[in-house]
Amino acid sequence: MAANTTVIDHPLVQHKITLLRDKDTQPVIFRLLVREISQLMLYDATRDQKLVDREIKTPMTGMTAPVLADPRLVLVSIMRAGNVMLDAALELIPNAGVSHIGIYRDHDTLEAVEYYFNGPPDISERPVLIVDPMLATANSSVAAISRLKARGVHDMRMVNILAAPEGIAALDAAHPDVPLFVGAIDEHLNEKGYIIPGLGDAGDRSYAT
Ligand code: PRP
Ligand code: URA
């Protein structure tokens, strides 16, 4: 396993990933589980966020208390499936910035095809957290990180619910500076680039396509 990869092996995360994998889990529950798992994983993945002191008054007295420092995190969703994780992250960090990267894998070549990018103009000066449930070949994630680096982003981390060993190795080779948080590392990729045992196609299972 790459040195900058953390497996979030909390029992609640592991339990919910098992439910997510089950082929009988329907889209509404699938999205709910992705939301819950994302929030549990974010707890660890945001541990390095900086705090500053703020003077406040409780009903009892004045005090100095910590709040998240500016500039706030930018949450980057690799569409489509990343959007479910993005919504969950925004519930926890409501005033985070948001960036969407539209990328899909070409079914034949498995190469990443980018079709959309949008994000805050000051993204290069802000910490960034990328979300996508799946890291398979890592072509999509490598492309997303390359796009963000081209925009000047230098402080990045990524959260994937499931990862293949091949994807972790590819990501580490291309972007060893980006810390990775995963819920589980599966066995391998099949000949079509799907994670085995995996959970199938995360976008299709989220949106019933
Ligand atoms: C899925 C998933 C990742 C990508 C992972 O997206 O959400 O973005 O595959 O595979 P990779 O590591 O081999 O690149 P998909 O291409 O199915 O796009 P979609 O969510 O728009 O259907
Ligand atoms: N993308 C998915 O959604 N699932 C996989 O198993 C691989 C890539």
Structure commentary:
With 209 residues, the protein is an alpha/beta fold. It has a single domain (12-207), classed as Rossmann fold (3-Layer(aba) Sandwich), CATH 3.40.50. It is built from six helices and twelve strands. It has helices at 11-21, 27-45, 82-92, 139-150, 165-174, 202-207, and strands at residues 5-7, 51-57, 62-68, 74-79, 97-105, 112-118, 128-131, 134-135, 156-163, 180-185, 188-189, 195-196. The strands form three sheets. Strands 1, 4, 5, 6, 7, 8, 9 and 10 form an eight-stranded mixed β-sheet that branches. Strands 2-3 form a two-stranded antiparallel sheet. A hairpin with a 4-residue loop joins β2 (51-57) and β3. α1 (11-21) packs antiparallel against α2 and α2 (27-45) crosses α3. The longest helix has 19 residues, at 27-45. The two termini are 33 Å apart. The protein binds 1-O-pyrophosphono-5-O-phosphono-alpha-D-ribofuranose and uracil (URA). The site of 1-O-pyrophosphono-5-O-phosphono-alpha-D-ribofuranose (PRP) has 23 residues, from β4, β5, β8, α4 and α6.
Quick summary:
By secondary structure, the chain is of the alpha/beta class. The chain contains six helices and twelve strands.
